[in-house]
Amino acid sequence: MHDDLSPLAQHMGRYMAERCVDGLPGHFDDELLTAFPDEDRKSISLALAELEAEGLVTLSHVIGPHLPRVRTTVDLFVSCDAAITGQDPVEDSVVLARMLIDNPRLGGNTRNLEQAVGWERRRFNPAFALVVPNVAEGRVRASIQNEYPTMGVLLADEDIVQLRRYVQRHTR
């Protein structure tokens, strides 16, 4: 994880990443007070602010709860997964991008891409979430579901070019 984060922020980041068992962003709130009983609320709030400053979580302040609502980001998995799962989501995303370049039809249904690569969902989702921004918005299947970052991508030539550039940037 980021070396400039406090030990508590690093520990909390890892804690949240470990509990996102499907590799999708997770939601946390006052349960963090229970998970870190030796820490006071102010210390936990500061650690969350550190994580937010690094783009690892987003915070939504609401009236009532002691802590803001916390939503993890893909960047948290990028920072933590090598230590947690032994996999690097960026390296994995390059594998997926290459698969899509070689066979664009695989992207039409995310489940098919997941089956083709043969990874468990916890490994697949963060990597695929890194690939999706390389596809133009109108070609990303927007649907409300909680299995994947998106249900699929419909690739045009422009998207293939972007995926090639992505692979080049991440394999130097």
- How far do the termini sit from each other? 22 Å
Instruction: State the helicity in percent bands.
Output: 40-55%
Figure out the total of helices.
Answer: 8
Q: Give the H and E element order.
A: HEHHEEHHHHH
Largest sheet: 3 strands, antiparallel
List keywords for this structure.
mainly alpha, Arc Repressor Mutant, subunit A, 2 domains, 3-stranded antiparallel β-sheet, elongated
Walk me through the structure.
By secondary structure, the protein is mostly helical. The chain folds into 2 domains: 7-84, Arc Repressor Mutant, subunit A (Orthogonal Bundle), CATH 1.10.10; 89-169. It contains 8 helices and 3 strands; from the N terminus they run H-E-H-H-E-E-H-H-H-H-H. The chain has helices at residues 7-19, 31-35, 41-53, 74-84, 89-102, 110-117, 121-131, 157-169, and strands spanning 27-28, 57-60, 69-72. Strands 1-3-2 form a 3-stranded antiparallel β-sheet. A hairpin with an 8-residue loop joins strand 2 (57-60) and strand 3. Helix 1 crosses helix 3 (41-53), helix 1 (7-19) packs across helix 4 (74-84) and helix 5 packs across helix 7 (121-131). The chain starts with 6 loop residues before the first helix and ends with a helix.
